[in-house]
Amino acid sequence: MRLSQYFLPVTKDVPSDAAIVSHQLMLRAGMVRQNGAGIYSWLPLGFKVLKKIEQIVREEMDRAGAVEMLMPTLQQADLWRESGRYDDYGEEMLRITDRGGRDMLYGPTNEEMITDVFRGYVKSYKQLPLNLYHQQWKFRDEVRPRFGVMRGREFLMKDAYSFDLTEAAARVSYQKMFAAYLNTFDRLGVTAIPMQADPGPIGGDLSHEFLVLAESGESAVFCDSEVLDVPAPGLDFDFGDETALAAEMDKRTKFYAATDEKHDAAAYADVPDGRKTEARGIEVGHIFYFGTKYSEPMGAGVQDSDGNVVPIHGGSYGIGVSRLVGAIIEACHDENGIVWPASVSPFDVGLISMRPKDEACAAGCDAAYDALTAAGFETLYDETDDRAGAKFGRMDLIGLPFQIIIGPKALEKGVVELKIRKTGEREELALDAAINRMRALA
Ligand code: 5CA
Fold it and tell me: Is 294 in the pocket of ligand 1 (CB under 6 A)?
């Protein structure tokens, strides 16, 4: 992508209410534009990151056996009356009336709607287990939308819903999502710690939140530092192996880790001294097992092997896809801007032409752009007339993992300058060698 043809409205103007670094950097890097309290347009650069996160989440859900679909944002109030949550949900729910006078709402979550889909088709235990998910915009009329996309009113969520015949089977489905989340966050380049959580308005008796540690996090976190070092299950993990699934959960839950809501000072006192970690965290995922809370009132039952109709055991599994854009920046930035993990970076490399008006330099940069593209690197090519300092600052701000800088002198020597954004390390080498080096580091 040639920068002169792109839309990258970087800016120095950041409103004073942008209190945390990810919000400031997203505005400065031209990733989002606020349209109202907690409501944002995703500008091209931000949208690319959002799509990358969405794709990784999709791949890991699919790997764990969940099946993707799409439900609408607008829902009928009557469905929520069946579960009893229409009145319970309170002011966070945005309620709308259509021209026919029907009560509608902008979905804050989809337990009712998926239960309705399920009961419309699934009648036998033989069709279980089933896990259906989608990635769709949600609306919650938060009292205090803040921190940019981290606590928005309209936000993108991945929500998965599992259906099982028995509680034991439902716990296996829960463990699958637990393991899939660890792999997902690992691929996204962040460490997310699972912690026992309060189920809140979703309900149920088993629930874990996944938190990324960051100073700006809304939750206080108490944990045994050992939990930070447990490796993710890995992409070759066998989701059909129930022993391995239980082990993955035990490996982490055996260490103390809780948010302030669930903190137990007495249990924390047993954590050995050098390992006590008190920090702040951002909730990027939340999983729930709620048994028959929705299936019973909504009549979502299946025939068991004896021919009796029994309500299914359900769970729901959320990931804050749009919140993750902010959370990743909170965990990955320095004084010059964002430092994207390669997996979610909007482009793989930034190519800076030092003298776009110099014919030889322009030709050399065009050739490098073609070579990088042919080598499979998605390249943002800065061929604008801006000052060199402005170009460097902008490229650092948007945080692509690599920069290739080409000026007339380097061209004469047959080299380019490769800069590694994370370390600031710079090296002069031939373009082919730079490509190999980037491949080795990616
Ligand atoms: N139905 C369940 C799971 S599918 C559910 O709604 N869970 S939740 O309420 O915990 O939300 C799931 C995830 O969405 C949270 O972990 C968080 O990462 C994200 N999220 C929740 N509220 C917001 C918000 N206001 N802005 C951005 N992300 C949010």
Answer: no
User: Mind listing the pLDDT tens digit for each residue in 182-196?
Assistant: 999 999 999 999 998
Helical H segments across 84-166, by residue range: 85-88, 111-121
Regarding whether 170 and 233 lie in a shared domain, the answer is yes
Tokens found for residue 152 = 């928005």
Of 314, 338, 362, which marks where a domain is finished?
338
Probe residue for ligand 1, chosen from 157, 211, 216 as the CB with the greatest number of ligand atoms within 8 Å: 157
Check whether residue 191 and residue 308 sit in a common domain: yes
Range of the domain at 389: 349-441
CA-nearest residue, atom 1 of ligand 1: 109
pLDDT of residue 198: 80
| CB crowding 129-143: b at 16 or more within 10 Å, else e | bbbbbbbbebbbbee
The answer on 322 and 269 residing in a single domain is: yes
Domain final residue pick, 280, 315, 338: 338
Q: What is the mean pLDDT of the chain?
A: 96
Report the 3 state secondary structure along 172-234: HHHHHHHHHHHHHHHHCCCCEEEEECCCHHHCCCEEEEEEEECCCCCEEEEEEHHHHHCCCCC
pTM reported for the whole predicted model: 0.97
pLDDT value at position 16?
87
Q: Which residues of the chain have pLDDT under 50?
A: none
